[in-house]
Structure formats: C-alpha cells, structure tokens
Amino acid sequence: MPKRALSEHRPWLLVAVACAVAFYFMRDEAIGGLYLIILKGAGVGALAAYAFHRGKGTPGILIGLVMTLSAIGDMAIELTLEAGGTAFFLSHLVAMALYLKFPRHHTTASQKGLAVVLLLGTPLICWFLSQNASIALYGLALGGMAATAWMSRFPRYRVGLGAVLFVVSDWLIFSREGPVDLTPIPDLAIWPLYFVGQFLIATGVVQTLRHELREEDD
C-alpha cells in the first residue's frame, strides 16, 4: 500500500479499534450515558468512514452505508432493543444487496449447505434463545446477510467469517431476552465478537473492491 494511502486511510482503522477497545473497558464507568453511546457508535462509525474513503463505486457506497446503519444501531440499541434492531435490519438488507452483486463463480455442495444452514438456522436459534417472534423475523435478515456473505466472492475467511461472528454476537444478545441463561458469556463476548466481525467485513470488502478495480485497469 502506498505511503500516502497509509497516512490518509489507515488512521480510520486505528480510530475504529481505539474506540472499540475504549468502549469495552469503559462501558461500566460512570462517565455519562451519552458519552458512552457516542463512543460506542464511533467504533463502527470509523469503519464507515474508512469504507466511504477507500471503497470504489456503488459497492463502496453500499459497504459504507452498511457500516453507517450499523453504527446507528450500536447507539440506538442503548436506548431500546427495537430501535437498534431496526437500524441493523436495514443494514442487513443493504449488505445482502451488496453481496448478491458479487456472487461466487464456483461453489461446492458443502459451501451451499452451510449457506442454507445460516439462512434457516439463524432465525430458528434466534427464536429458541428469545422466544420472541419479532426477533425471529429479524433473524431472517441476519441469516440472509450471513448466507449471502458466505456465498459471495468476497473472502470467506474475512467477510464470511465476519458475518458469522456478527450472528453469534446477536445470538448472545437475544439469549438475554429468553429462558436460556448464558451468564457471564454475553457480557464478555458480545462486543468483541461483533466488532471483530464488522472489522473483518469492512476491510475484506474494501480490499476486494480495490483489488478488482486494479485488475480492470490492467
């Protein structure tokens, strides 16, 4: 990566990580609810800035929008689960539109099978953990996002894995709403799983877009 690109764009990733780590360790501190909400949103918000700056064309705008809606969801969920869920639901729809634009050219039966498991299993587990029909409906979008990410030609061990980490983090959130008590796992793992997942998605998509653009220019 050119030195100019490093100096201009990597700071967005550094800011994202710094804000995410700061929120994780300060979330129980008495610094004020509003400040914590802003700090929480800043983590993925910085990933959105990175995506808008480094992404290319319409796909770059889409991944930037995915991260922007997710950052809004991060903040809104601190107010109500429904408000945050609405923002994330929209982000999943945009993510699916992006991933469907980049289908994988060759897939194996096992890869297709895992995509089906993600699509159908995600809402079922959402229902099992929460016993809530609205959350199960949200799980359809969540599972669709993960399945289309897995079947896209974005790197599976970055974008696909990131989507799966996102799913697991949401399952842990929903476990708080139903009869399954997983304490203290949700408190410890939700935020790291979620942020690492989003980081992998943003960087994986952006770097793939830039790589394909270079190939078109050659």
Automatic annotation (TrEMBL):
<feature type="transmembrane region" description="Helical">
    <location>
        <begin position="188"/>
        <end position="206"/>
    </location>
</feature>
<feature type="transmembrane region" description="Helical">
    <location>
        <begin position="12"/>
        <end position="27"/>
    </location>
</feature>
<feature type="transmembrane region" description="Helical">
    <location>
        <begin position="83"/>
        <end position="102"/>
    </location>
</feature>
<keyword id="KW-1133">Transmembrane helix</keyword>
<feature type="transmembrane region" description="Helical">
    <location>
        <begin position="159"/>
        <end position="176"/>
    </location>
</feature>
<keyword id="KW-0472">Membrane</keyword>
<dbReference type="InterPro" id="IPR012506">
    <property type="entry name" value="TMEM86B-like"/>
</dbReference>
<feature type="transmembrane region" description="Helical">
    <location>
        <begin position="136"/>
        <end position="152"/>
    </location>
</feature>
<protein>
    <submittedName>
        <fullName>Membrane protein</fullName>
    </submittedName>
</protein>
<feature type="transmembrane region" description="Helical">
    <location>
        <begin position="33"/>
        <end position="52"/>
    </location>
</feature>
<feature type="transmembrane region" description="Helical">
    <location>
        <begin position="114"/>
        <end position="130"/>
    </location>
</feature>
<dbReference type="Pfam" id="PF07947">
    <property type="entry name" value="YhhN"/>
</dbReference>
<dbReference type="GO" id="GO:0016020">
    <property type="term" value="C:membrane"/>
</dbReference>
<keyword id="KW-0812">Transmembrane</keyword>
<comment type="similarity">
    <text>Belongs to the TMEM86 family.</text>
</comment>
<feature type="transmembrane region" description="Helical">
    <location>
        <begin position="59"/>
        <end position="77"/>
    </location>
</feature>
